[in-house]
Design goal:
Largest sheet: 8 strands, parallel, barrel
Distance between the termini: 31 Å
Structural class: alpha/beta
Shape: globular
Strand content: 15-25%
Radius of gyration: 19 Å
Bound molecules: NADP nicotinamide-adenine-dinucleotide phosphate
Order of helices and strands: EEEHEHHEEEHEHEHEHEHHEHHH
Length: about 325
């Protein structure tokens, strides 16, 4: 496994991170034993970046990661970089009730997170979505106080745009921006990525498989469990899905010529975008993880990249990446 550094001030992490969200929430039922085994397999393979959110299953995901680290053998906690998002307000019915980035809330969220993870510090801590009622300077300032206190190592951002990035970076060093980036979601290339590069901020890219669409295993008739986010996603519905699966088939033909799978081509493409970008993959099972890890050694030359971008041209994807109501929460 190769390493990459998250921004000018951030930690060194494996070139591929494991996003643990789907082990607790949003993609239907997950198998707990298999989830823990997948985290262990990732650690064994040299993955050192684990990403979670305190609101993924209302604490379930942090408890799961805490258990996986406790049972992974001595020193496992110290070998990983734990990236945690906070701020999303939930209800017991699974609803979403906005975001809270007030300084007192930051400290409260962090206290609970440390308890659930069973650790005395979080490596990268970030507000999951900008709280429109709280200036980003106040939220980042509160995290900076936790850095001073030793309970947080680095400050990250999530789904914010250029102006917010500049304002946040003026308060304290920012390690990385977490944002959706894939062959299907290339919006960051115009403004956000250049600003990150100018300011020495890395990117942890999520949705590199477009939540499974670019995984190469999705089918038109796949049944979705109640509450699966993809049931509400414009990219997974009706004619949009047909158009997007046609793009996936074009990518499959290109990937096969290269001797790799669709998922490996999609992940390798994100890896090829720059040493400052670390893709998170949302593997929930060891077989999916093994497939994803295979992307790390795929070298794409100029001809390969051209073929991939011919198969999936920028802006050809059908449908927005979130439903309309959730698009409204994006500052990015
Ligand atoms: N900052 C933010 O706003 C934000 C938002 C969303 C996610 N995230 C983070 O980013 C992580 C990744 O996001 P994601 O899970 O949506 O992204 P993803 O990696 O694009 O999608 C994961 C989905 O892809 C499927 N898949 C197919 N082949 C795969 C393979 N070889 N390896 C891995 N997955 C494969 C999985 O399959 P199965 O259905 O078969 O398991 C799963 O449904 C999350 O876990 C979370 O930590 C952050």
């Amino acid at each position: 496994m190769h390493d990459r550094t998250l921004g000018a001030s951030g930690p060194v992490v494996s070139a591929l991170g494991l996003g643990c969200m789907g082990m607790s929430a949003l993609y239907g039922e997950a198998d707990r034993t298999e989830s823990v085994a997948t985290v262990h397999a990732a650690l064994d393979a040299g993955v050192t970046l684990l990403d979670t959110g305190d609101f993924y299953g209302m604490g379930h995901n942090e408890l799961l990661i805490g258990e996986a680290l406790r049972t992974a053998g001595a020193g496992a906690r110290d070998r990983v970089v734990l990236s945690v998002k906070f701020g999303a307000l939930r209800d017991a019915g699974g609803g979403w009730n906005g975001y809270d980035g007030r300084p007192a809330a930051v400290k409260n969220f962090l206290a609970y997170t440390l308890q659930r993870l069973g650790t005395d510090h979080v490596d990268v801590y970030r507000l999951s979505r900008l709280d429109p009622a709280v200036p980003v300077e106040e939220t980042v300032g509160a995290i900076a106080e936790e850095v001073e206190a030793g309970r947080v190592r680095h400050i990250g951002l999530s789904e914010v745009g250029a102006e917010t990035i500049r304002r946040a970076a003026a308060v304290a060093p920012i390690s990385d921006l977490q944002i959706e980036y894939s062959l299907f979601s290339r919006d960051i290339e115009a403004e956000t990525l250049p600003v990150c590069r100018e300011l020495g901020i890395g990117v942890t890219a999520y949705g590199v498989l477009s939540r499974g669409l670019l995984g190469g295993h999705w089918t038109r008739d796949r049944a979705l469990a109640p509450g699966d986010f993809r049931g509400l996603s414009p990219r997974f519905s009706g004619e949009n899905l047909d158009r997007n699966l046609a793009l996936v088939e074009a990518l499959r033909a290109t990937a096969e010529q290269k001797g790799v799978t669709v998922a490996q081509a999609a992940i390798a493409w994100v890896l090829s975008r720059g040493e400052d970008i670390v893709p998170l993959v949302g593997a929930r099972r060891r077989d999916r993880l093994a497939e994803a890890l295979g992307a790390v050694d795929v070298a794409l030359d100029a001809a390969d990249l051209a073929a991939i971008e011919d198969a999936v041209p920028a802006d050809e994807v059908a449908g927005t990446r979130y439903p309309e109501a959730l698009m409204a929460h994006l500052d990015s």
